[in-house]
Write a structure and sequence with these properties.
OB fold (Dihydrolipoamide Acetyltransferase, E2P), 5-stranded mixed barrel, 4 helices, 185 residues
Length: 185
């Protein structure tokens, strides 16, 4: 067989194997959610029964936090049409000091109040943080976090975690070590 055909066949086989592996992993995660198997031990470990002390507003943390800093902040799950990352333990937390959920505006009948469509892009940028739960290797857990421990759209949460190495002045990213929801406990 010619070398170029061998390389093409190997590439196709590897691609199919990776696709099958990703599909199997995705299906396993979806089945876990459907059967009510619950969160993994790693995800369950960050759900806090009591709120961490002395939370700060996201916009204040953003002004001073640097990668590696431990921070505690509070906010609501909002700031985007889809605040949860599908298949990952990650979501957007919005700062109620800067952002207003549409259902908090008298007379507003928005069907997706967590998207903060009435707030400016500048306020959304300054008033949001990405919250993620990572494994021991620093990779975001491959499971949905929505619905775990009261974490849902518009839920008020208090988070303690470490500012991720990948965090920038434009994108505050927190690796959560404790997440508390008043409605989940």
């Amino acid at each position: 067989m010619k070398p170029q055909y061998t390389a093409l066949i190997l590439t196709a086989a590897l691609g199919a194997a990776c696709e099958r592996s990703a599909t199997t992993e995705s299906t396993a995660s979806s089945k876990s959610a459907e059967t009510g198997a619950g969160p993994s031990a790693a995800l369950a470990a960050v759900i806090a029964a009591q709120a961490p002390a002395a939370p700060q507003a996201i916009h204040r943390v953003r002004d001073s936090a640097k990668p590696g800093d431990t921070v505690t902040l509070s906010g609501r799950v909002m700031g985007n049409m889809n605040p949860f990352t599908e298949g990952r333990a990650a979501f957007i937390l919005g700062d109620p000091a800067l952002l207003t959920a549409c259902n908090d505006i008298p007379g507003d009948e928005c069907e997706t109040p967590w998207d903060n469509c009435c707030d400016s892009p500048e306020d959304k940028k300054r008033g949001t943080a990405t919250i993620q739960v990572v494994d021991a290797d620093g990779r975001v857990l491959r499971e949905n976090i929505e619905g775990v421990g009261g974490i849902e759209k518009l839920a008020a949460l208090t988070i303690t975690g470490t500012v991720a190495d990948s965090s920038t002045p434009d994108a505050l990213i927190i690796n959560a070590s404790a997440i508390h929801s008043a409605i989940g406990n």
